């Protein structure tokens, strides 16, 4: 597959043909990684970070676990400004 390098502002870019976009399941706005390897340009799709739900994160917590010492001091500190 051939494509041209085009000027885009002070940089340059190339077009990813639609069949390749479809094959790689890429959409406009997706993040890609660009690297040089042995004189070649390697463009790889970047997997998006998982989106977490609050309930899933809370399910991983142990509410009976003791509070770490480093947080106990902060938790018991008095207000010093307009926090409250």
From TrEMBL:
Keywords, ordered alphabetically: DNA-binding
Domain SpoVT-AbrB residue range list: 3-48
Domain of life (superkingdom): Bacteria
An annotated Gene Ontology molecular function: DNA binding
Coiled coil: none
The protein's name in its UniProt record: AbrB/MazE/SpoVT family DNA-binding domain-containing protein
Organism annotation: Rheinheimera riviphila
